[in-house]
Structure to design on (209 residues):
């Protein structure tokens, strides 16, 4: 079994920021989880950190309105970004959020990778594609997680995975695609392997290991 290099269970809540200007200091390494409302971002963070209530999950889409940040150690952070594409949010607020999301992806020095979560039954919607494009433009590696994989049988799951992998070639960037389920932990090892790579500091001189 894969033994992750980082102890994700060590994650602890750091701050809730109303916008990207209120995030913690832009140093060290951070990895952000983004996706449509209800895609399973908070659930995936809880699965990764083996903590049932670290990130709040909800049956009501649009629950996470703040940018929640979690610390793994003094050099590494996980970021739970608010979901997008929620129909009931006014257009002006949607546009403002899209703008600040793009700005965050382009300007945040410590951001070393973006996990984009999509319900396996509704992958690659317009905003998902925009997000992956912005990340690729910013030379950020992207991990697409096709979430709630437990909702499909093995055949349909495999088929969707291959289709999304094929479609993702068009992004012309460092884009990896895996299936994931918070319910049965399928894909957890793959998630840990990708995050371990992104979190591996170029030099461990800071002595955090
Ligand atoms: N069957 C199944 N349900 C899941 C899975 N992951 C999340 N869910 C459910 O999907 C709903 C939304 O999950 P969240 O993790 O809160 O989604 P989110 O992306 O954080 O949503 P927002 O914060 O509102 O944007 C909840 O009811 C979860 O229980 C999964 O792997 N399998
Ligand atoms: Mg959430």
């Amino acid at each position: 079994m894969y033994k992750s290099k980082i102890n994700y269970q060590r994650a602890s809540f750091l701050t809730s920021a109303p916008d990207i200007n209120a995030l913690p200091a832009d140093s060290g390494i951070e990895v952000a989880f983004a996706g449509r409302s209800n895609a399973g971002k908070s659930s995936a963070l809880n699965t990764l950190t083996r903590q049932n209530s670290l990130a709040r999950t909800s049956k009501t889409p649009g629950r996470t309105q703040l940018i929640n940040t979690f610390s793994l150690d003094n050099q590494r952070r996980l970021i739970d970004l608010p979901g997008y594409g929620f129909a009931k949010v006014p257009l002006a607020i949607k546009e403002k959020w899209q703008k600040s999301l793009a700005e965050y992806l382009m300007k945040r020095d410590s951001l070393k990778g973006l996990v984009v979560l999509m319900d396996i039954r509704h992958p690659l919607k317009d905003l998902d594609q925009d997000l992956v494009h912005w990340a690729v433009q910013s030379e950020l590696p992207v991990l697409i997680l096709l979430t709630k994989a437990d909702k499909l049988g093995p055949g349909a799951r495999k088929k969707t995975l291959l289709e999304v992998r094929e479609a993702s070639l068009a992004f012309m960037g460092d884009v990896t695609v895996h299936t994931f389920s918070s319910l049965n932990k399928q894909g957890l090892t793959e998630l840990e392997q990708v995050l371990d790579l992104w979190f591996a500091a170029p030099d461990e001189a800071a002595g955090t290991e």
Observations:
- The radius of gyration is 16 Å.
- Confidence is low (pLDDT under 50) at residues 205-209.
- Residues 8-205 form a domain with the Rossmann fold fold (CATH 3.40.50.300).
